[in-house]
Specification:
Radius of gyration of chain C: 22 Å
Structural class of chain C: alpha/beta
Order of helices and strands of chain A: HHHHHHHH
Shape of chain C: elongated
Number of helices of chain A: 8
Distance between the termini of chain A: 54 Å
Helix content of chain A: over 70%
Largest interface: A-B, 32 and 40 residues
Radius of gyration of chain A: 21 Å
Strand content of chain A: under 5%
Number of strands of chain C: 16
Helix content of chain C: 25-40%
CATH architecture of chain A: Orthogonal Bundle
Oligomer: heterotrimer
CATH topology of the largest domain in chain C: D-Maltodextrin-Binding Protein, domain 2
Largest sheet of chain A: none
Number of domains of chain C: 2
Number of domains of chain A: 1
CATH superfamily of chain A: MetI-like
Strand content of chain C: 15-25%
Shape of chain A: globular
CATH topology of chain A: MetI-like fold
Chain lengths: ~220, ~230, ~300
Amino acid sequence: MNLTFAFFDWGVVSGFILKGLVFSVQLTLVAMVGGIALGTLIALMRLSSKRWLVLPAAAYVNTLRSIPLVMVILWFFLLIPLLIGRPLGAEISAMITFTVFEAAYYSEIMRAGIQSVPKGQVSAGYAVGMNYAQCMRFIVLPQAFRNMLPVLLTQTIILFQDTSLVYAVGAYDLLKGFEVAGKNFNRPVETYLLAALVYFVICFSLSMLVRQLQRRIAIIR
Amino acid sequence: MSWDWQVFFQDTGSGQTYFNWMMSAWGWTLLVSACALVVALAFGSLMGILRTTPVRAFVWIGNAWTELFRNIPLLVQIFLWYHVIPSLFRPLQAVPDFIAVVIALGFFTSARISEQVKAGIQALPRGQRYAGLAVGLTLPQTYRYVLLPMAFRIIVPPLTSESMNIVKNSSVAFAVSITELTFFAMQAQEETARGVEIYLAVTFLYFISAFAINRVAAVVEKRVRVPGMIGGGK
Amino acid sequence: MKFLSKTGFVLIAALFALAAHAQQLTGTLKKIKDSGTIVIGTRESSGALAFTLGDGKYVGFHVEMCERIAKDIQRDLKMAKLDIKYQPVTSQNRIPLMQNGTVDLECGSTTNNTARQKDVAFAMTTYVEEGRIVVKANSPIKGIADLNGKTVATTTGTTSVQTLRKNKRAANMDFKEVFGKDHADSFLLLESGRADAFVMDGQILAGLVSKAKNPADFKILGEILSVEPIACMVRKDDPAFQKAVDASIVAMVKSGDLAKMYDKWFMQPIPPANTKVGLPLSDATKNAWMNPNTKPMEEYALP
């Protein structure tokens, strides 16, 4: 089989690919911000001394971590319309799903981050009259977040790769963009190859950046 | 919302019930995962080891392999093995779908295992390597008898979580015609319109699979624990 | 009505309403009149029956037909303005959304079968889908009997998978099934030689072949594997609305407009790629138009 990439011009990129890339990036950012926020909250719950906070948080994390993401995507796509009475569309549904799903993974990272902060610092915080919220807000979380930044970002790169799974519910992401272009021009093989290349370039550059960041953080610490 | 669990005893049209079909789908999930895990362990270990050798070319190969398979989404990799490579090399079209998925899932996971193996070997004191070489062992012998036995015992916990991941990731295989659990979920949902019941059952089977691996791993971990290390028991 | 009640002719008003309007002021028709909108449930990609052009635009044979139905209902209800809202649905959620009132009229590619008749009602059948086999033009396969020992592709999440299974069992044959994740993927399996045949709804196959690199490389076999009546879905136990929808369709059949719409979507170039599906009106579909009915799939026999 001969490969031809002649069809792949700016028109194809702007017509099919960009739209998908924008959604994939959007989905990644929404799920990252939402997931880290929700994940931090869950991590704090798991580390609390109250059982009624620990148990639901642990159940949340363990449940979501033992189900494949594709199944979670299918679940939410099926359940959300039944619960709220109207469908949200594959895109919004994917954003909710990814935020909820990634929160389980981010929460494990944040938990490790919070645990890496020496206990004495919290005691010191209490000693100077801070309450729990202040201790967390001004002492623990900033350090936890900072120590874990490379891991959080690595997880985000995985998240970006996982966005390709939204095709299970038909959302238009980067991979779908390539697929649709491939179908329209009858060049599926070439577009799959290009998709692989684009994902590789994006993810490889990002992981290089994360590695650099990791070195800088290591030095400062 | 009313339940209708009878759906699992309906005939699918081929003389078996949906329940039977689901069980065979579970079998495919486990088979794909097990085969991919073997591939992943073999290539992951090899590449991880290469990355810790003093030979620069080996290190480069190991790094390149790891970066390549780590930075492309699994789904895209599956399409590469299933659609792209057979159309570039016609004879490969005879390769069954199952093999294509096992290779894709295995290589994808091998990149992650290679990271673990590398970390495991690098976690050992450098002196062990020198000691091995100093008593006259060749480099392969040093790996075989000194470094790897320790390194593998250290990385059992992360390998456990990779084994659980591989079961979860095998769900992507439905995209290329493997009739595993997620495929069953999508297809049976469409045929019976009892999505919630079908999804619940499938999710439950994924749970059991993950739990089983977790238990097996706990036994393995206990047996291979290195005495005297943190987490090494008393 | 307001005028009448004001003047105190309550009894006359009630009688008048009962005689002329009582039927129209219940259920979906009342909802449409009160809200000034009708919500049409439709599909993102159901061949030429219903598909999206992006940006919330939906077109296709059934979509156009439903737009006309909406217009007729607007006329019947003497409404000055009727907004049509489109709600994309999937095969998973179309029935719950019809039941809970989100969607008033579903115009996609829903097969009328007895299982679904328990939950929803159907307008008269307007399209009869025939399951067919597509093969490479030079293939020796002439019909289902030749599939023994071959590899057959179909698409995950479609009833064709079931059709294939039933045929396999009925004919006591052995063939390998492969599943594409969407129709284009299944077609690729055939194109690349991984599958010897692809079994799917006739109109989808016709559409795929028309868009292929070289349509002459493929042929759709004459044998019909399954027959499924496709109809618009309406809420159950709302005979007034169902009657209004059917009346509008019957009028379109009589005026020849439905045939014109069919020609537009199945025989002429259609967006987005300006290709022709090229599937002439089948006898089964024509028959359904001439003899309006809501028979479920189970009552259809293979020709």
